[in-house]
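tool_call: predict_structure(chain=1)
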Amino acid sequence: MLQTELLPRLELALAAAEEAGAITLEFFRRGNYQVELKPDQTPVTVADRKAEQRLRERIEGRFKSDAILGEELPSRDGTSGFRWILDPIDGTKSFVSGVPLYGTLIGVEFDGQSVIGVINLPALGESVYAAAGQGAWCARDGMETRQARVSDKTSLADALFCTSELAAYDGPGRRPALAQLESACRLARTWGDCYGYVLVATGRAELMLDPVVNLWDCAAIQPILEEAGGTFTDWQGHRTMHAGEAVATNGHVLDQVLAITRAYPRP
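tool_result:
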């Protein structure tokens, strides 16, 4: 894969994520929308759909032969080997609650490997992004863009552990893993969804764990974590974004985390 193919897609992903994020802000905390429940009982709003539609329009206008997979709208096939994986609002439950810890996620995979990741946090004025071989970067409103790097902490006893919805640990019977990690870490917080992964990638947390995720939750995150020097695996330690579960670490604490999570495989 040539950088001449990769970098234009990163450029478009950054611009499109900014535009989609701005659309979400037209609805955030304004009470001008209804919350619907999808068949899996997760919420969706007009903001989700409008943001994803903008993403698709931008991609289709520039890369007509690329495939697209999005959370809210039908998939589109492609012929180029590239596939865009979109989550217009990751953290819709936070969004509808007026909590700013949500983001717009864009991942781009090539031949099954995620090679571009963009996370835009519109309500926080922050974004983190990466492309394979190009490092990970963090941009904040009013500040110079700087390289994103994981922390150098080597012990869970010094670590900040983040996770998403606690009820997600009930289904596979993984509450014991949650309890053990809470006990082992210095701090545990439910700063979840994409925000927790951003914290790991930028050195503000050492561990983010999810027992249940979808591909569109992971495709943007994996390249960002890896280019920032961290790891993105399943609970067994396999490098993948297709497992339906996720462990993100700064790399230094990975073995300590896996010593706990490997005891609780998916049923």
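agent: The radius of gyration is 17 Å. Proceeding to next step.
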